[in-house]
Amino acid sequence: xxxxxxxxxxxxxxxxxxxxxxxxxxxxxxxxxxxxxxxxxxxxxxxxxxxxxxxxxxxxxxxxxxxxxxxxxxxxxxxxxxxxxxxxxxxxxxxxxxxxxxxxxxxxxxxxxxxxxxxxxxxxxxxxxxxxxxxxxxxxxxxxxxxxxxxxxxxxxxxxxxxxxxxxxxxxxxxxxxxxxxxxxxxxxxxxxxxxxxxxxxxxxxxxxxxxxxxxxxxxxxxxxxxxxxxxxxxxxxxxxxxxxxxxxxxxxxx
Length: 255
Fold this sequence. Notes:
Blueprint: H1 7-56, H2 78-82, E1 113-116, E2 121-126, E3 154-158, E4 172-173, E5 192-193, H3 197-200, E6 212-213, E7 225-230, E8 235-239, H4 240-244
Parallel strand pairs: 1-4, 5-6
Antiparallel strand pairs: 1-3, 3-7, 7-8
């Protein structure tokens, strides 16, 4: 005669399964996050190479995250210029994100890989080396690779992307919006989080955010990672905690 499980035994089995699930799910999420971060790093290195090719054809001048003198419909965003040197539009979208390639000014919010906005250009922009740079959106001259500490100067990072009308500006991140580092001003980190800060700060003007989104392996406690691509084309993944630290060694403010 077969013996049936008692209610207590069934509850014990369920409790053990729940305990194992609680242990395994974070591990699986971490592994998946690491795999996605590796894919993102590979893609963004390809963008870095395309950026170098672009600069070589422009007398050493980097692409401008936005050229405010160009028409809004086409040619204003860095993505449209650099894409001609890349394999496909697909690499400009961060893996696992719902972003898309930004082809026009109206779509600038939808990008999920952003260029450092200290490359932005406008004849009426901020003058380089001005003492008060907070809130600067563009500069009076295109940025040259000459003089950059290329192995530590950050060009590309993952960004939150979404509806432009809701404040997303995923095509760039702004290095002048973070908490100042008085000891090493150029190493002042942008707004960085493993949460989507644009969604978290709903209603806040998009131009005053432009954060970095460390989306991979996100825990909500800034343990998530984002690849950072430097001006020499090299790259590495960093946690949000590391990036906001005062001793990261990364040059964010390129002017």
